[in-house]
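Quick one, tokens below. Sequence please?
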């Protein structure tokens, strides 16, 4: 009678040369979706060992990117920075501008959480460079928001606000809506073709702009930005909007 395989045996199952790159990608994606980030890392590392042992190969680039995302979900910031540095040259050799933009985004966020704001800004500047080439305005706006956040925490408020304005302008262009429309309408999703994550970033950008204006004593503008952020579904902005005089 066969007994069920234990976890260690299942993990070793990856050493069999029958597993394809697509199989691993799909398995890692399903494990990430289940929130089992440590297991996803173990599977990737095991597959890497299998490739080296049986084929003398390195990880395929797409699985490199999966590992970086897993480390981001696990909030292993120092390890993420190190891994991104190791992988950047792979994507540079491939001229994969979309993946390079993603890697620099992950690195910028990692540095931000480590409170290394100058390095974070540098990573986001690289992200802008590659996102411009791919034409992804929402990613450029995300990078501007990240830079603004860094300058805000460095207490350089006027510079921070200028970057938030750049992000806001690009988000408006990306969503194809007007300022007056944002002020008038309650919105959770601005455009059914845009994902919720982009809308959330847009709302956060507006909320931070409102906070900076309030800090500078520009109450009327602060109220305007709080209202726009609230209309995009930001709950904190909805609270501030009700409390504003």
């Amino acid at each position: 009678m066969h007994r069920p395989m234990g976890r260690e045996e299942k993990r070793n199952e990856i050493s069999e040369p029958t597993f394809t790159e697509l199989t691993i990608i799909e398995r890692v994606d399903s494990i990430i979706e289940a929130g089992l980030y440590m297991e996803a890392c173990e599977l990737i590392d095991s597959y890497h060992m299998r490739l080296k042992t049986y084929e003398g190969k390195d990880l395929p680039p797409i699985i490199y990117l999966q590992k970086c995302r897993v480390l981001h979900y696990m909030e292993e910031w120092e390890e993420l920075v190190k891994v991104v540095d190791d992988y950047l040259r792979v994507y540079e050799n491939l001229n994969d501008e979309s993946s390079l933009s993603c890697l620099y985004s992950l690195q910028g966020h990692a540095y931000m959480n480590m409170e290394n704001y100058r390095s974070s800004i540098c990573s986001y500047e690289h992200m802008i460079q590659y996102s411009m080439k791919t034409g992804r305005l929402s990613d450029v706006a995300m990078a501007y928001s990240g830079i603004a956040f860094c300058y805000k925490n460095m207490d350089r408020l006027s510079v921070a606000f200028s970057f938030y304005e750049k992000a806001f302008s690009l988000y408006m262009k990306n969503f194809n809506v007007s300022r007056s429309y944002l002020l008038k309408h309650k919105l959770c999703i601005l455009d059914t073709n845009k994902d919720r994550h982009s809308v959330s970033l847009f709302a956060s950008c507006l909320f931070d702009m409102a906070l900076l204006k309030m800090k500078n004593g520009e109450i009327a503008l602060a109220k305007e930005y709080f209202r726009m952020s609230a209309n995009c579904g930001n709950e904190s902005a909805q609270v501030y909007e009700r409390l504003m005089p």
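Residues 196-215 form the longest helix (20 residues). The two ends are 75 Å apart (CA to CA).
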